[in-house]
Design a protein that fits this description.
Order of helices and strands: EHEHEHEHEHHEHEEHEEEEHE
Structural class: alpha/beta
Number of helices: 9
Oligomer: single chain
Strand order of the largest sheet: 3-2-4-1-5-6-7
Radius of gyration: 19 Å
Length: about 300
């Protein structure tokens, strides 16, 4: 059986991993591609966006694939994908994932399924707008960058030259060896697909910071009635200080929209019809986020909603 080229996409929440994944899927021609997508929330949001005809798709939710809570699931998913007739397998990890133990996981896959992969590298997406604050406050951002083979600074159109140079300098301080690319909307030059990025490794394998004890709380919301965009924005503004990330699909008065919240940026993108409005919240404050979401909804909305763990 031929070896599949394996890439792992990392990067903090909202950095553009799914955008890069979609770019890859749209430009791999006739190649057979498998995708393993990791979500912290119970509801799959990015998986819906990434489905394409002919793509082998596996989703692993409710935690990090590098944590002991899901590591065996990840090994099994890779082993099963490794037995399929594919050219590429792309793993999109959660934004809070620490991939420091990827080599350990790949060794386990090799024992279980044989030498079915050629690991081509970990690609770390960086949000040019928010990276300086994230790097200072969140240790997993440092780990993602230290253990990547290629760093991609995304959203370069949203920062000026001074901030971009500061981001580049911060990247090089953490990882002076990895390949560095700049892009907008995840659209990078795909020449790297013909290179062995692993030659640019910087940090050695170590235990992941992702553990059962520090696993962040996620909750999801469902709503069956349309709402005004202004009201939903007001609700999100009240909730976002207590969350790392908010995303989902919502029926507004104007139609269906994908809702994407990163830091203070709230974006709405038209999307296809869904059965029901759903949104996922990744909490900074543990279970107390339930009270935050419930109170904010009652203050801004006049229609019912349902929260789920």
């Amino acid at each position: 059986m031929k070896q599949k080229k394996l890439y792992v996409l990392t990067g903090f929440l909202g950095s553009g991993k799914t955008s890069l994944l979609l770019h890859l899927l749209d430009h791999t021609g006739d190649a057979k591609v498998g995708v393993i997508q990791n979500e912290f929330g119970k509801i799959s949001i990015d998986g819906i966006l990434s489905r394409r005809d002919g793509i082998e798709m596996t989703e692993i939710t409710r935690g990090s694939i590098f944590c002991s809570c899901l590591k065996l699931n990840f090994v099994q998913a890779l082993a099963e994908m490794g037995q399929k007739d594919l050219d590429y397998v792309i793993v999109e990890s959660s934004g809070l994932a620490d991939p420091s133990n990827i080599e350990e996981i790949l060794n386990a896959v090799k024992l279980l399924a044989g030498d079915c992969y050629r690991f081509e590298g970990a690609i770390c997406l960086i949000d040019a707008v928010n990276f300086p604050v994230q790097l200072a406050d969140i240790e997993t951002v440092d780990r993602q960058l230290s253990h990547c083979h290629m760093a991609v600074i995304n959203k370069t159109d949203l920062v000026d030259h001074h901030q971009l140079q500061a981001v580049i300098a911060a990247v090089r301080k953490v990882n002076p060896r990895c390949r560095l690319e700049l892009c907008q909307n995840g659209k990078i030059d795909l020449a790297f697909l013909n290179e062995d990025l692993t030659l640019l490794a910087w940090a050695e394998c170590e235990d992941s910071l992702n553990t059962v004890d520090n696993k962040p709380k996620t909750i999801s919301m469902e709503c069956s009635m349309p709402v005004a965009q202004a009201d939903l924005t007001a609700f999100l503004q009240k909730v976002l200080p207590d969350t790392y990330r908010i995303k989902g699909f919502f029926l507004l008065n104007e139609g269906w929209f994908q809702v994407d919240v990163v830091e203070k940026l709230i974006e709405y993108h038209p999307t296809e019809r869904r059965e029901i409005s759903q949104m996922v919240f990744l909490s900074k404050i543990g279970p107390k986020v339930i009270r935050t979401v419930d109170s904010a909804w009652k203050e801004t909305m006049s229609v019912p909603m349902k929260l789920k763990n």
